Amino acid sequence: MAKLIHVAQMQRRAVGTVTLYLREVTPHHFVWYEETDKDKETETAISASNVQEAMRLAQREWHSQGFRTIICGFRYTLPERDEHGMNALFHQMAASYSTPNGVYFDEDLGHNCTVQNASQEALCFWENLKNEGRL
Q1: Is the pLDDT of residue 43 over 90?
Q2: Where are the alpha helices (DSSP H) in 27-89?
Q3: Cα separation of 2 and 22, whole Å?
Q4: pLDDT above 70: residue 81
Q5: Is the CB of residue 42 less than 8 Å from the CB of residue 54?
Q6: Could you tell me how many helices (H) and strands (E) the chain has, helices first?
Q7: At residue 41, what are phi and psi to the nearest 5 degrees?
Q8: CA gap 118, 90 in Å, rounded
Q9: Residue among 101, 97, 100 nearest 123 (CA)
Q10: DSSP bridge partners of 76
């Protein structure tokens, strides 16, 4: 299964809340998947060569359906390189919360990082996906 990068939700009239997963299928190829049944994901037409573009395209495509990403907290680079932090992606939150002290090495940045203040919703998603082996 492709690496899970981020999680989002949107509303569909007949269905209700739909969960979306941004996955890195290959390096430089990110695709949004829609959860159709429990533990079953269907590929959508939204894909991009980087995370930012995939997020932008998803927002544009599903804006009218209330597309929103879940709040995964703020990522801080260490040692204390920034005061305000950046919005964390789901995989960054999972990496940080999987270590005993919260510090993980971010390969994209080349620095140690930590994530703080993840929402309870994001933590519940993380626990459920970890238990189901879908990370």
Answers
A1: yes
A2: 51-62
A3: 9
A4: no
A5: no
A6: 3, 9
A7: -120, 140
A8: 9
A9: 97
A10: 114
